[in-house]
From TrEMBL:
Record GO cellular component, one term: phosphopantothenoylcysteine decarboxylase complex
A GO molecular-function annotation: phosphopantothenoylcysteine decarboxylase activity
Name listed for the protein in its UniProt record: Flavoprotein domain-containing protein
One GO term of the biological process aspect: coenzyme A biosynthetic process
Gene3D superfamilies assigned to the protein according to its UniProt record, in alphabetical order: Flavin prenyltransferase-like
Lineage: Bacteria, Bacillati, Chloroflexota, Ktedonobacteria, Ktedonobacterales
Sequence ranges assigned to domain Flavoprotein in this UniProt record: 5-135
Chain segments annotated as coiled-coil in the UniProt record: none
InterPro entries: Flavin_trans-like, Flavoprotein
Length: 175
């Protein structure tokens, strides 16, 4: 089974994380949930640990501790907030979520699918489009079409899973 890091930020769709995990598991993914500290207030970390069979995390490990995360075949950042998008694009690694995103982007692997969820006022902020363009140019698969999916709605889960399958199949074909 392929390992997927599901990175969760504090946005309304975070309330649906259990549903997302179940759908990803049905699609064949071994899901590891990593949340921003703020997102831990929006989701049930204990229930997600039970559902996935893996500790849901939000903090860095301490020096000398073994890394509990296996290598990922893909990363899904969903929902991804304005704050996290901008920090990630600027290389600010102040949470486990942004740290994993920054490291993966710097390494060039695994493939990353990013699903922003933010208000239209933030979509129109000049930093947002600049940083989305930077992330796309860096190989991130950003699923964000504000004209098609009105804020704060997100891309349908089926489309997210299809994109994950496509980007991982593409990576495997080129390895």
């Amino acid at each position: 089974m392929k390992v997927l890091y599901l990175l969760v930020c504090a946005a309304p769709p975070a309330h649906e994380t259990k549903t997302v995990v179940r759908a990803l598991q049905q699609a064949g993914w071994d899901v590891w949930v990593i949340a921003t500290p703020q997102a831990t207030r929006w989701i049930d970390m204990t229930a997600l640990t039970q559902l996935t069979g893996h500790p849901a995390r939000s903090d860095y490990r301490l020096p000398g501790e073994a890394d509990p995360l296996p290598p990922a075949h893909a990363i899904l950042a969903m929902p991804l907030t304005f704050n996290t998008i901008n920090k990630w694009a600027c290389g600010i690694s102040d949470t486990l979520v942004t740290g994993l995103l920054c490291e993966a982007l710097g390494r060039g692997t695994p493939p990353i699918v990013a699903v922003p969820c933010l208000k239209m006022d933030l979509v129109r902020h000049p930093a947002f489009q600049k940083h989305i363009n930077l992330l796309r140019e860096s190989g991130v698969h950003v699923l964000h079409e504000p004209e098609r999916y009105k804020s704060p709605q997100m891309v349908p889960l089926e489309e997210v899973i299809e994109t994950l399958q496509a980007v991982t199949a593409h990576q495997e074909a080129h390895e």
